[in-house]
Design brief:
With 391 residues, the chain is an alpha+beta fold. It has helices at residues 57-66, 78-88, 126-134, 171-174, 195-204, 215-228, 300-307, 320-332, 335-338, 376-390; strands at residues 11-17, 38-39, 44-48, 71-72, 96-102, 109-111, 140-144, 150-154, 160-166, 179-181, 184-193, 208-209, 234-235, 246-250, 259-263, 268-275, 284-286, 289-296, 312-314, 341-346, 359-364. Helices cover 25% and strands 27% of the residues. The protein is flat.
Protein backbone atom coordinates (compact mmCIF):
# COMPACT_ATOMS: atom_id res chain seq x y z
CA UNK A 1 0.00 0.00 0.00
CA UNK A 2 1.34 3.42 -0.89
CA UNK A 3 1.28 6.13 1.72
CA UNK A 4 1.13 9.90 1.48
CA UNK A 5 3.29 11.50 4.15
CA UNK A 6 1.67 14.39 6.05
CA UNK A 7 3.64 15.77 9.01
CA UNK A 8 1.73 18.20 11.25
CA UNK A 9 3.64 20.73 13.39
CA UNK A 10 3.44 24.41 14.29
CA UNK A 11 5.11 26.19 11.42
CA UNK A 12 5.54 28.99 8.96
CA UNK A 13 4.15 28.52 5.48
CA UNK A 14 4.50 30.11 2.08
CA UNK A 15 1.74 30.86 -0.39
CA UNK A 16 2.40 31.54 -4.03
CA UNK A 17 0.44 33.36 -6.72
CA UNK A 18 1.10 32.92 -10.40
CA UNK A 19 1.57 36.63 -11.11
CA UNK A 20 0.14 39.06 -8.57
CA UNK A 21 -0.21 38.77 -4.77
CA UNK A 22 -0.83 41.04 -1.92
CA UNK A 23 5.42 39.44 3.88
CA UNK A 24 8.56 41.55 3.53
CA UNK A 25 8.00 44.47 1.17
CA UNK A 26 8.02 43.67 -2.53
CA UNK A 27 11.34 42.18 -3.64
CA UNK A 28 11.70 41.95 -7.41
CA UNK A 29 15.49 41.76 -7.80
CA UNK A 30 15.96 38.71 -10.05
CA UNK A 31 19.29 37.96 -8.36
CA UNK A 32 17.93 38.02 -4.80
CA UNK A 33 18.42 34.25 -4.48
CA UNK A 34 22.17 34.43 -5.25
CA UNK A 35 24.08 36.56 -2.70
CA UNK A 36 26.65 39.04 -4.06
CA UNK A 37 25.49 38.57 -7.65
CA UNK A 38 24.56 41.37 -10.06
CA UNK A 39 21.75 41.56 -12.58
CA UNK A 40 23.11 41.78 -16.13
CA UNK A 41 19.90 42.09 -18.14
CA UNK A 42 17.90 39.54 -20.13
CA UNK A 43 17.12 37.65 -16.91
CA UNK A 44 20.80 36.79 -16.27
CA UNK A 45 22.75 37.13 -13.00
CA UNK A 46 26.56 37.37 -12.87
CA UNK A 47 28.80 36.68 -9.86
CA UNK A 48 32.54 36.53 -9.28
CA UNK A 49 33.59 33.06 -8.23
CA UNK A 50 34.05 32.40 -4.53
CA UNK A 51 36.72 29.75 -5.15
CA UNK A 52 39.65 30.13 -2.73
CA UNK A 53 42.09 30.03 -5.64
CA UNK A 54 42.12 30.76 -9.40
CA UNK A 55 41.32 27.86 -11.72
CA UNK A 56 42.05 26.70 -15.26
CA UNK A 57 39.23 27.25 -17.76
CA UNK A 58 37.73 23.75 -17.65
CA UNK A 59 37.92 23.63 -13.86
CA UNK A 60 36.26 27.04 -13.67
CA UNK A 61 33.38 25.84 -15.83
CA UNK A 62 32.95 22.79 -13.58
CA UNK A 63 32.95 25.04 -10.50
CA UNK A 64 30.15 27.19 -11.97
CA UNK A 65 28.05 24.12 -12.79
CA UNK A 66 28.57 22.82 -9.25
CA UNK A 67 27.30 26.12 -7.88
CA UNK A 68 23.62 25.31 -8.32
CA UNK A 69 23.70 24.67 -12.05
CA UNK A 70 25.43 27.82 -13.24
CA UNK A 71 27.88 28.27 -16.10
CA UNK A 72 30.71 30.59 -17.05
CA UNK A 73 29.33 34.02 -17.94
CA UNK A 74 28.57 34.82 -21.58
CA UNK A 75 28.24 38.44 -22.71
CA UNK A 76 25.81 39.01 -25.57
CA UNK A 77 24.80 42.64 -24.87
CA UNK A 78 26.37 45.92 -23.76
CA UNK A 79 24.48 45.57 -20.48
CA UNK A 80 26.18 42.24 -19.86
CA UNK A 81 29.56 43.50 -21.06
CA UNK A 82 29.51 46.47 -18.69
CA UNK A 83 28.24 44.36 -15.78
CA UNK A 84 30.97 41.79 -16.33
CA UNK A 85 33.50 44.62 -16.59
CA UNK A 86 32.40 46.03 -13.26
CA UNK A 87 32.83 42.62 -11.65
CA UNK A 88 36.17 41.97 -13.38
CA UNK A 89 37.47 45.28 -12.03
CA UNK A 90 37.18 43.83 -8.52
CA UNK A 91 39.53 40.94 -9.32
CA UNK A 92 42.83 41.17 -7.48
CA UNK A 93 44.41 38.39 -9.55
CA UNK A 94 44.24 39.81 -13.05
CA UNK A 95 41.87 38.73 -15.89
CA UNK A 96 38.81 36.55 -15.31
CA UNK A 97 37.47 33.67 -17.41
CA UNK A 98 34.28 34.02 -19.46
CA UNK A 99 32.40 31.19 -21.15
CA UNK A 100 33.96 30.91 -24.60
CA UNK A 101 36.59 28.58 -26.04
CA UNK A 102 38.08 27.78 -29.46
CA UNK A 103 37.11 24.46 -30.97
CA UNK A 104 39.84 22.07 -32.08
CA UNK A 105 41.41 23.31 -35.29
CA UNK A 106 39.46 26.60 -35.19
CA UNK A 107 40.76 30.11 -34.63
CA UNK A 108 37.47 31.71 -33.56
CA UNK A 109 36.20 31.74 -30.01
CA UNK A 110 32.66 30.42 -29.55
CA UNK A 111 30.25 30.60 -26.62
CA UNK A 112 29.92 27.37 -24.65
CA UNK A 113 26.12 27.31 -24.62
CA UNK A 114 25.36 27.48 -28.35
CA UNK A 115 28.67 27.52 -30.26
CA UNK A 116 28.06 30.99 -31.73
CA UNK A 117 31.11 33.09 -32.53
CA UNK A 118 32.02 35.69 -29.91
CA UNK A 119 31.17 39.11 -31.30
CA UNK A 120 31.35 41.98 -28.83
CA UNK A 121 32.07 45.21 -30.76
CA UNK A 122 34.60 47.70 -29.37
CA UNK A 123 35.49 45.37 -26.52
CA UNK A 124 38.74 43.76 -27.69
CA UNK A 125 42.32 44.70 -27.10
CA UNK A 126 43.78 45.59 -30.50
CA UNK A 127 46.65 43.14 -30.13
CA UNK A 128 44.51 40.25 -28.91
CA UNK A 129 42.43 39.76 -32.06
CA UNK A 130 45.64 38.87 -33.88
CA UNK A 131 46.43 36.18 -31.34
CA UNK A 132 43.03 34.64 -31.92
CA UNK A 133 43.43 34.62 -35.69
CA UNK A 134 46.91 33.11 -35.58
CA UNK A 135 46.08 30.74 -32.73
CA UNK A 136 49.73 30.05 -31.96
CA UNK A 137 49.02 28.91 -28.45
CA UNK A 138 46.93 25.79 -29.04
CA UNK A 139 43.39 25.90 -27.67
CA UNK A 140 42.46 29.33 -26.38
CA UNK A 141 39.76 30.66 -24.07
CA UNK A 142 38.10 34.01 -23.45
CA UNK A 143 39.10 36.32 -20.60
CA UNK A 144 38.21 39.85 -19.52
CA UNK A 145 40.63 42.25 -17.85
CA UNK A 146 39.94 44.75 -15.10
CA UNK A 147 39.66 47.41 -17.85
CA UNK A 148 36.63 45.51 -19.31
CA UNK A 149 38.51 44.59 -22.50
CA UNK A 150 38.41 41.04 -23.82
CA UNK A 151 41.50 38.98 -24.48
CA UNK A 152 42.53 35.50 -25.57
CA UNK A 153 44.44 33.29 -23.18
CA UNK A 154 45.74 29.75 -23.07
CA UNK A 155 43.08 27.66 -21.34
CA UNK A 156 45.59 26.15 -18.91
CA UNK A 157 46.24 29.47 -17.21
CA UNK A 158 44.75 29.72 -13.70
CA UNK A 159 42.48 32.77 -13.32
CA UNK A 160 39.46 34.02 -11.43
CA UNK A 161 36.14 33.61 -13.25
CA UNK A 162 32.58 34.92 -13.47
CA UNK A 163 29.63 32.54 -13.26
CA UNK A 164 26.10 33.18 -14.47
CA UNK A 165 22.65 31.85 -13.68
CA UNK A 166 19.32 32.46 -15.36
CA UNK A 167 16.74 34.03 -13.06
CA UNK A 168 14.23 35.64 -15.41
CA UNK A 169 13.16 39.26 -15.89
CA UNK A 170 10.16 40.26 -13.71
CA UNK A 171 9.24 42.93 -16.26
CA UNK A 172 8.29 40.18 -18.71
CA UNK A 173 5.22 39.66 -16.50
CA UNK A 174 4.29 43.19 -15.48
CA UNK A 175 5.61 45.28 -18.37
CA UNK A 176 6.54 43.17 -21.41
CA UNK A 177 9.40 44.55 -23.48
CA UNK A 178 10.91 46.44 -20.54
CA UNK A 179 14.18 45.84 -18.71
CA UNK A 180 14.59 45.66 -14.93
CA UNK A 181 16.59 48.09 -12.78
CA UNK A 182 16.22 48.90 -9.06
CA UNK A 183 12.65 47.62 -8.60
CA UNK A 184 11.41 49.36 -11.75
CA UNK A 185 10.76 48.38 -15.34
CA UNK A 186 12.14 50.64 -18.08
CA UNK A 187 10.53 50.48 -21.52
CA UNK A 188 12.34 52.06 -24.50
CA UNK A 189 10.15 54.08 -26.86
CA UNK A 190 11.93 54.34 -30.21
CA UNK A 191 9.79 57.22 -31.51
CA UNK A 192 10.63 60.87 -32.10
CA UNK A 193 8.50 62.75 -29.58
CA UNK A 194 8.36 66.22 -28.07
CA UNK A 195 8.84 66.46 -24.31
CA UNK A 196 5.09 66.70 -23.68
CA UNK A 197 4.33 63.88 -26.11
CA UNK A 198 6.85 61.67 -24.32
CA UNK A 199 5.14 62.39 -20.99
CA UNK A 200 1.72 61.62 -22.47
CA UNK A 201 2.90 58.43 -24.17
CA UNK A 202 4.30 57.01 -20.94
CA UNK A 203 1.18 58.03 -19.00
CA UNK A 204 -1.11 56.29 -21.47
CA UNK A 205 0.62 52.95 -20.81
CA UNK A 206 0.47 53.38 -17.04
CA UNK A 207 4.07 54.55 -16.60
CA UNK A 208 6.04 57.77 -16.17
CA UNK A 209 8.74 59.41 -18.24
CA UNK A 210 11.85 58.10 -16.52
CA UNK A 211 14.03 60.51 -14.57
CA UNK A 212 15.60 58.98 -11.46
CA UNK A 213 17.23 61.39 -9.01
CA UNK A 214 19.09 58.84 -6.86
CA UNK A 215 22.75 59.25 -7.83
CA UNK A 216 23.60 55.54 -7.85
CA UNK A 217 20.51 54.58 -9.86
CA UNK A 218 20.97 57.56 -12.17
CA UNK A 219 24.43 56.48 -13.34
CA UNK A 220 23.24 52.97 -14.21
CA UNK A 221 20.03 54.34 -15.74
CA UNK A 222 22.07 56.50 -18.13
CA UNK A 223 23.79 53.39 -19.45
CA UNK A 224 20.52 51.46 -19.55
CA UNK A 225 18.93 54.12 -21.73
CA UNK A 226 21.96 54.08 -23.99
CA UNK A 227 21.80 50.28 -24.35
CA UNK A 228 18.05 50.12 -24.93
CA UNK A 229 17.81 53.08 -27.33
CA UNK A 230 20.99 52.44 -29.33
CA UNK A 231 22.73 55.59 -28.12
CA UNK A 232 20.07 57.98 -29.48
CA UNK A 233 19.01 61.07 -27.42
CA UNK A 234 16.06 60.63 -25.06
CA UNK A 235 14.12 62.87 -22.68
CA UNK A 236 14.86 63.10 -18.95
CA UNK A 237 11.58 63.10 -17.00
CA UNK A 238 12.78 64.50 -13.68
CA UNK A 239 11.01 67.74 -12.75
CA UNK A 240 14.14 69.17 -11.16
CA UNK A 241 15.48 70.20 -14.58
CA UNK A 242 12.21 71.02 -16.30
CA UNK A 243 11.31 74.61 -17.17
CA UNK A 244 8.58 76.34 -19.14
CA UNK A 245 10.30 76.14 -22.51
CA UNK A 246 13.25 73.85 -21.96
CA UNK A 247 13.89 70.31 -20.73
CA UNK A 248 16.87 68.00 -20.51
CA UNK A 249 17.76 65.53 -23.23
CA UNK A 250 20.12 62.65 -22.45
CA UNK A 251 22.48 62.36 -25.41
CA UNK A 252 22.49 58.56 -25.30
CA UNK A 253 26.22 58.11 -24.81
CA UNK A 254 25.86 56.56 -21.37
CA UNK A 255 28.19 59.27 -20.02
CA UNK A 256 27.18 60.99 -16.76
CA UNK A 257 27.86 64.36 -18.41
CA UNK A 258 26.14 63.53 -21.69
CA UNK A 259 23.06 65.76 -21.55
CA UNK A 260 21.88 69.06 -23.01
CA UNK A 261 19.17 71.64 -22.43
CA UNK A 262 16.74 71.63 -25.36
CA UNK A 263 13.43 73.21 -26.32
CA UNK A 264 10.50 71.04 -25.24
CA UNK A 265 9.22 71.24 -28.80
CA UNK A 266 12.30 69.48 -30.15
CA UNK A 267 12.29 65.75 -30.75
CA UNK A 268 13.89 62.86 -28.91
CA UNK A 269 13.03 59.33 -27.88
CA UNK A 270 11.69 58.26 -24.50
CA UNK A 271 12.32 55.80 -21.70
CA UNK A 272 9.19 55.00 -19.68
CA UNK A 273 9.41 53.78 -16.08
CA UNK A 274 6.94 51.61 -14.20
CA UNK A 275 7.79 51.14 -10.52
CA UNK A 276 7.16 47.67 -9.10
CA UNK A 277 5.47 47.88 -5.70
CA UNK A 278 3.74 45.72 -3.11
CA UNK A 279 0.61 45.99 -5.23
CA UNK A 280 2.31 43.63 -7.69
CA UNK A 281 3.87 41.40 -5.03
CA UNK A 282 3.95 41.89 -1.27
CA UNK A 283 6.64 39.27 -0.84
CA UNK A 284 9.39 37.94 -3.11
CA UNK A 285 8.83 37.65 -6.85
CA UNK A 286 10.66 34.94 -8.78
CA UNK A 287 10.02 32.76 -11.81
CA UNK A 288 6.74 34.51 -12.65
CA UNK A 289 5.42 33.82 -9.14
CA UNK A 290 5.01 35.83 -5.96
CA UNK A 291 5.95 34.01 -2.73
CA UNK A 292 4.47 35.39 0.47
CA UNK A 293 5.52 34.00 3.85
CA UNK A 294 3.02 33.60 6.71
CA UNK A 295 4.08 33.07 10.32
CA UNK A 296 1.28 31.34 12.20
CA UNK A 297 0.66 28.38 14.52
CA UNK A 298 -1.20 26.15 12.10
CA UNK A 299 -0.98 22.65 10.69
CA UNK A 300 -0.39 21.75 7.06
CA UNK A 301 -4.06 21.32 6.18
CA UNK A 302 -4.87 24.79 7.51
CA UNK A 303 -1.89 26.28 5.67
CA UNK A 304 -3.06 24.73 2.41
CA UNK A 305 -6.62 25.95 2.91
CA UNK A 306 -5.44 29.44 3.80
CA UNK A 307 -3.37 29.68 0.60
CA UNK A 308 -5.98 28.21 -1.73
CA UNK A 309 -7.71 30.91 -3.76
CA UNK A 310 -7.85 32.43 -7.25
CA UNK A 311 -4.42 31.72 -8.75
CA UNK A 312 -3.00 31.12 -5.27
CA UNK A 313 -1.83 27.92 -3.56
CA UNK A 314 0.63 26.53 -1.02
CA UNK A 315 4.13 27.00 -2.41
CA UNK A 316 5.49 24.28 -4.69
CA UNK A 317 9.27 24.74 -5.14
CA UNK A 318 9.56 22.60 -8.26
CA UNK A 319 12.80 24.22 -9.44
CA UNK A 320 16.19 24.87 -7.86
CA UNK A 321 15.64 28.61 -8.38
CA UNK A 322 12.40 28.66 -6.38
CA UNK A 323 13.98 26.55 -3.65
CA UNK A 324 16.97 28.87 -3.33
CA UNK A 325 14.68 31.90 -3.15
CA UNK A 326 12.52 30.36 -0.42
CA UNK A 327 15.57 29.43 1.65
CA UNK A 328 16.83 33.02 1.62
CA UNK A 329 13.34 34.49 2.05
CA UNK A 330 12.70 32.54 5.25
CA UNK A 331 16.14 33.45 6.60
CA UNK A 332 15.68 37.15 5.78
CA UNK A 333 12.27 37.16 7.44
CA UNK A 334 13.70 35.82 10.70
CA UNK A 335 13.46 32.08 10.12
CA UNK A 336 16.60 31.42 12.14
CA UNK A 337 15.14 33.27 15.11
CA UNK A 338 11.81 31.45 14.87
CA UNK A 339 13.46 28.02 14.81
CA UNK A 340 10.38 26.87 12.90
CA UNK A 341 9.72 24.68 9.91
CA UNK A 342 8.37 25.57 6.49
CA UNK A 343 5.26 23.91 5.03
CA UNK A 344 5.50 23.24 1.29
CA UNK A 345 4.15 20.88 -1.32
CA UNK A 346 6.92 18.84 -2.95
CA UNK A 347 5.59 16.73 -5.84
CA UNK A 348 6.87 13.15 -6.11
CA UNK A 349 9.67 13.59 -3.63
CA UNK A 350 12.14 10.77 -4.22
CA UNK A 351 12.52 10.11 -0.50
CA UNK A 352 9.14 8.33 -0.51
CA UNK A 353 9.97 5.82 -3.18
CA UNK A 354 6.89 3.71 -2.45
CA UNK A 355 4.49 6.52 -3.25
CA UNK A 356 3.47 7.86 -6.62
CA UNK A 357 1.41 10.60 -5.00
CA UNK A 358 2.41 14.13 -4.17
CA UNK A 359 4.10 14.35 -0.79
CA UNK A 360 3.15 16.97 1.78
CA UNK A 361 6.24 17.53 3.86
CA UNK A 362 7.84 19.93 6.33
CA UNK A 363 11.42 20.85 5.48
CA UNK A 364 14.05 23.01 7.07
CA UNK A 365 13.38 26.63 6.16
CA UNK A 366 16.84 28.13 6.48
CA UNK A 367 20.38 27.62 5.39
CA UNK A 368 20.44 24.06 4.07
CA UNK A 369 18.18 24.00 1.05
CA UNK A 370 14.77 22.40 0.95
CA UNK A 371 14.97 18.66 1.51
CA UNK A 372 18.38 18.65 -0.05
CA UNK A 373 21.84 18.79 1.52
CA UNK A 374 21.71 18.67 5.31
CA UNK A 375 18.02 17.81 5.55
CA UNK A 376 17.78 14.24 4.28
CA UNK A 377 18.27 12.76 7.77
CA UNK A 378 15.44 14.87 9.13
CA UNK A 379 13.14 13.78 6.30
CA UNK A 380 14.12 10.13 6.87
CA UNK A 381 13.35 10.45 10.59
CA UNK A 382 9.96 12.02 9.88
CA UNK A 383 9.10 9.25 7.41
CA UNK A 384 10.23 6.49 9.83
CA UNK A 385 8.18 8.03 12.65
CA UNK A 386 5.08 8.11 10.46
CA UNK A 387 5.59 4.51 9.33
CA UNK A 388 5.99 3.35 12.97
CA UNK A 389 2.78 5.11 13.93
CA UNK A 390 0.85 3.42 11.11
CA UNK A 391 1.93 -0.12 11.92
Amino acid sequence: MTRQLVVVLLTVFACVKESNAAGISGVFNPCYFWPDSQYAGNGICFRMNDSPEPLKFMDAQTACVSDGGGSLAEIRTEYQRDTAGQIAASSTLGPVWLGAISSDGQTNLAWNSDGKTVEVPQSWRDDERGIIQESNYGQICLAMGEDSLLSASTCDRAQNFICQKYAGNPCDVFYPGAEYLANSCFLPVAKNLTYEEAHMYCGEIGAELAGPSDEEVYSVWLKLGSWLLNKTPFWYGGDVYAGTLYAIQILGSGDAHGFSKELKSSLAQALCEKALTTEECDGVFVDRRCFKLHVSDVNWEYAKADCDGPRSYLAEPKTDLRQEVLVRYVADTGGDAYGLMLFLVIPKLSIVSSSSHNVCLIVQGTGHGLCRTGVEAQCDAALESTNEASR
